[in-house]
Amino acid sequence: GNQWGYGKEDGPSAWHRSYPVAKGSRQSPIDIIPEQAFHDNSLGPIIANYDHCTSINISNNGHSVVVEFVDSDNRSVIQGGPLDNPYRLKQFHFHWGGKGCDGSEHTVAGYSYASELHLVHWNAVKYKTFAEAATAPDGLAVLGIFLKTGDDHRWLHTITDALYMVKYKGSVTDFRGFNPKCLLPSSLHYWTYLGSLTTPPLHESVVWIVLKQPIVVSDKQMGKFRTLLFTGEEEEERIRMENNFRPPQPLQGRKVRSSN
Ligand SMILES: CCCCCNS(=O)(=O)c1cc(S(N)(=O)=O)ccc1C(=O)O
Ligand SMILES: [Zn+2]
Q1: ipTM
Q2: Computed from CA positions of residues 231, 214, 79, 198, in that sequence, does the dihedral angle turn out positive or negative?
Q3: 190 FRET partner, CA 20 to 30 A, in 6, 109, 206, 260?
């Protein structure tokens, strides 16, 4: 089957065996070097219209914790910036490290953050389904937001307080009325480049928009992510969900652009 993970045997260095695109020319994440990014004045601001979003549930898929949204219309979209049209919000999830270790996927001049939030959107103007968009070169737009540790994040509690209900792989529970705009930093300045999913199937279908300003969360809140398990309730072995991040991949001559 498609069992992949973040362990020694099934982790990122082994993914290429089942997913040869892992060695492709536009893989993610990458190390972003701010001084080498191209300031593109034609890059407008990112506009996230999440006020009419409808969250459905929160789940543990064995790789991360995921909040899914209704994406049957354009009620919650991201547009502007490098995007030619609105992209629909489908889900968001996180990547994080272990106790005291950082776990972001993108790095900034070699610097890792504690965690990285990914808001996944798809191009419903050009493609009929998410699955079709997920394999198209301009099919997905993922908004990446760094998390650094410090004070408590006022709104992240809504998520961390629900994690005990999705401790085990395969668990899902209702999660209504959550608006992810409360997880955005005050500045929407960003870097953007063409890349891929950072988990199998690693499709090279993502326009990445990585915000420069991290949000601040507490160590305690990060610790709650690490109470999740990679393993299911029925499994004997309990493996703590942590270090679920792919390391930076070769830039292969790609240009990283920077908004003002
Ligand atoms: C049809 C196959 C699509 C698989 C990708 N699904 S996804 O929601 O875009 C996704 C993106 C990402 S990522 N890190 O944004 O590339 C990670 C996991 C998933 C997931 O499947 O949960
Ligand atoms: Zn992700």
Answers
A1: 0.98
A2: negative
A3: 6
